[in-house]
Amino acid sequence: QEHFNILKVHSMCHYVQAICSLGSANGSESPKRLHIDYVKDAYQASNKVDYIIQMTHWLELQEAVFHHGIYLQW
Hints:
This protein has 74 residues and is an all-alpha fold. The protein contains three helices and no strands. It is extended, with a radius of gyration of 18 Å. The model has no long low-confidence stretch (mean pLDDT 79).
C-alpha cells in the first residue's frame, strides 16, 4: 500500500497551522475541560425543560456576544 491513512499521523499535518493561528497548547485549557465548562454553564442557564434546545441557543448567544466584542475592538 502506498499510503497509510492513520488518523493520528494525518492530524499531525494540521498541528503546525493550529499552533500558528491559535498559539501553543502548553498551559492552555484542554478541549475536554472547555467542553465540561461550557456544558455546565449552558445547563445551569436552562430551566431544565427541553434543555438541549436551550443549551444550544445559549451557546449561540455566547458566540454572538464574543464576536460582537471582537468587532467593537476592531
